[in-house]
Amino acid sequence: MVASRKLLFPIDDTEHTLNAFKYFLDKFRLDDDHVILCHVVKGISVSNAAEREKLLDEAMQKSKKDHEKLAEKYRLEAKDIERLTLSFELVFGKPGESIVQFAKEEKVEAIVMGSRDLGTFARALNSSVSNYVVHHADLPTVIIPRKQTAEAKQA
């Protein structure tokens, strides 16, 4: 019998990430997995101190509302799967750094995520979130490329 795994799956509101999640559910998920779906929201910068608090509060409320909609979309995708535990977390910060830090804090066994395949230029600039996570996380990281997510979309 395989013990349950605690995995981190970073999410956003793109179709590609949802398709990567579908691929994960179809090809990698094991019974009794606990998957933390983590939505990272970039912080906003405001130079005017008087406006900062108001804008931050508005941004926080919008982010929470968007996160709930996103969580519901992923819940629906997995609704028919038994023996799967999903939890949802909203994190503020730089995506790559926040994912790596959150994985460490939550003591997950692995990170599973989609890759947008930004191309040679973006890779040369090292600007991909998945690239950052692969090179900075101290645990196994599974990257589901765009090709596989296209297959999941067709299934």
UniProtKB/TrEMBL annotation:
InterPro entries (alphabetical): Rossmann-like_a/b/a_fold, Universal_stress_UspA, UspA
Transmembrane segments: none
Protein name from the UniProt record: UspA domain-containing protein
PANTHER family: USP DOMAIN-CONTAINING PROTEIN, USPA DOMAIN-CONTAINING PROTEIN
Pfam families: Usp
CDD domains hit by this protein: USP_At3g01520-like
All residue ranges annotated as the UspA domain in the record: 5-145
